[in-house]
Amino acid sequence: MEKFLDNLPPMDLMRSEKMTLVQLIIPVESAHRAISYLGELGLIQFRDLNAEKSPFQRTFVNQVKRCGEMSRKLRFFKDQISKAGLLSSVHPVVEPDVELEELETQLAEHEHELIEMNSNSEKLRQTYNELLEFRMVLQKAGGFLVSSNNHAVAEERELSENVYSNDNYVETASLLEQVSEMRPTDQSGLRFISGIICTSKAVRFERMLFRATRGNMLFNQAPAGEEIMDPVSSEMVDKTVFVVFFSGEQARTKILKICEAFGANCYPVPEDISKQRQITREVLSRLSELETTLDAGIRHRNKALTSIGYHLTQWMSMVRREKAVYDTLNMLNFDVTKKCLVGEGWCPVFAKAQVQEALQRATFDSNSQVGIIFHVMDAVESPPTYFRTNRFTNAYQEIVDAYGVARYQEANPAVYTVITFPFLFAVMFGDWGHGICLLLGALVLIARESRLSTQKLGSFMEMLFGGRYVLLLMSLFSIYCGLIYNEFFSVPFHIFGASAYKCRDPSCRDANTIGLIKYSDPYPFGVDPSWRGSRSELPFLNSLKMKMSILLGVAQMNLGIILSYFNARFFSSSLDIRYQFVPQMIFLNSLFGYLSLLIIIKWCTGSQADLYHVMIYMFLSPTDELGENELFWGQRPLQIVLLLLALVAVPWMLFPKPFILKKLHSERFQGRTYGILGTSEFDLDVEPDSARQHHEEFNFSEVFVHQMIHSIEFVLGAVSNTASYLRLWALSLAHSELSTVFYEKVLLLAWGYDNIVVRLIGLAVFAFATAFILLMMETLSAFLHALRLHWVEFQNKFYHGDGYKFKPFSFALITEDDD
């Protein structure tokens, strides 16, 4: 058996890639090119040898700052292109690589030019807006002035008294009363200020003017009729033209200060109509000239931004890569001569030749007289975990890694999760109608894979797209389980032939009371459609699904324990095999393996034995006769033997291992044996980037308590985990019953009315319930329960999950967020 297992070919993904710690001694003149080539290769994870230094104390801090400044300029260009409504080129112009210094000069020139153009454009826009406002004030205020000279003041006084009267206000006569008492030709004391203000501030502005002048003013306003662009925010703003009539220099000063505080722009308007017309003509002429100048400036700016946009993607990529290179160089140390950089990192064993070839190219391309030294080092810390996945297996590996990254070279659950996860989901979701809907969704995502992979998706859509192959297998297994359950949107079909049951008479009156009679061989595949609607439908399906859940659960837990054997064998830990794997297999299968055997025998023989009674009295009265619950000859003595084995397995797990570890430890440090023990308990927990330390003191109580916790956890977990798999039965039943309720109480009920509107409403409600409740909420529910069964019930039998991921220095992994 040992030779057979040794001769088996290695399984992909079963173990993480073998890693080695390497040291690089790189001459300064070829350091930048060497790190760049390694970044393109993406197969080495550098260790930070300057962890005690702050970012500002490192060697290449100035280069990192320069790259950061260039990133800022590029982000500025991107914002300007976006604000201008232009699109950066999707297919950028490929130009020969430029030096960092040359690119830095180009970016500085472009930024200076763009800032100058923006400043000039803003000044021109401000002047244009002022002239536009002036034109509006001339148009609206001119009408106010004509009105004030030709209309009677009595109406204004009446308005003023109605709006602003105050019984407690006792002073001299108001301004309007003085104006009304004056002769029309003697109005030298009345003055006015005209201007324009944002419509949102007009009411508050008027109220403030009234309070400041104590009512001695007349405020006229009219909407400007056009929106004006704010040069700062580039937003269109509604404005209102106003004219304030007042008397006295003190009132004028107050009004001007209030205008300034509210951001109102004041413009002088002559009373003479001929002068107003002359100024209006001049303003219109200047507006026409400014429009031409602004359009020319915008065209010139857009042309400059378009030329930048052609190269923007390439420049951003180049700057990101350069910054990543210098960040990596900051992780390297200078040797004592200051002529070489020394770096350390993890590298997969299969990639050593590729790394050496990249380093040789770097030496040759940089014309260095000294080659780069590459040699393997001995490591005392645990290496990172690296699985080579493809787009199909990546999603399943992410599901496992969400629980915890595998310890270096321990068995990877993702190998089995590829099949078991979608299958357990389908056991809970089984309906081949719903499965076809999920399949169509998965096929759409896969068909549009090349296009969606290049787009920026929302969080939900990104998660859905990342799990497209998980969704594909989930839908295929759902169709398979739906065919076994014989459910298509809860409706059974005679797909594989006629039913094995028929009515007792042609009228079928007793079908739902007395039942049907069997007249042929069992239905060839899945559940017989005649069970649907029968009086024993629920008891039959409950019994079937509950027993099936136990069988699947015991099988998966046994797989987990078997994987713990392969882990122990791989790490040469004979203690774990003898004192963990063997007693765990005995305990689990003595109880729940035996229960699974009884279920299969009962199915095969058609016995009426009560399995609840058998399992309960196996513990309470193991020596009693089974009577009618006996399924096979020799069952009672077998039960006694299995019960004794289960009782023996508990101390077998608990006691021997701590005492043997203590004995081996004492022998090791007395010099009688050498080497490090490869047991999981004796190996210390290894943190990333920390050296393994070997304690010479053996804490027996700690090891014993640790083993006792493991033993109790397994014994109790064997019961609770088996019960936990009953969620397969519960969710399958819930999904089936929900489908039945929506079909019978919504669709069939609506179809019973001879009204097209009621039928359409029923169809719409059924479609909505199917899409949002059965296809979305039930899918999410079954997904989370399948996730729990894998993380807790399956992986806790063998999976430590305390490793850390291999994160190589790779340009392909750099994103825009790293700017």
How do you describe this structure in short?
The chain is built from 24 helices and 11 strands. The protein is of the alpha+beta class and 819 residues long.
Walk me through what this model shows:
The chain crosses the membrane at residues 423-446, 467-485, 548-566, 586-603, 638-655, 756-777. Belongs to the V-ATPase 116 kDa subunit family. One of its GO terms (molecular function) is proton-transporting ATPase activity, rotational mechanism. It is a multi-pass membrane protein. The protein has 819 residues and is of the alpha+beta class. Among the domains are: 392-493 and 546-672 and 700-797, no CATH class; 494-528, no CATH class. The chain is 58% helix and 8% strand. Strands 1, 2, 7, 8 and 9 form a 5-stranded antiparallel beta sheet that branches. Strands 4-5-3-6 form a 4-stranded antiparallel beta sheet, sandwiched between helices. A hairpin with a 5-residue loop joins strand 7 and strand 8 (340-348). Helix 12 (414-429) packs parallel to helix 23 and helix 18 runs parallel beside helix 22. The longest helix is centred in the middle third of the chain and has 57 residues, at 273-329. The relative contact order is 0.11.
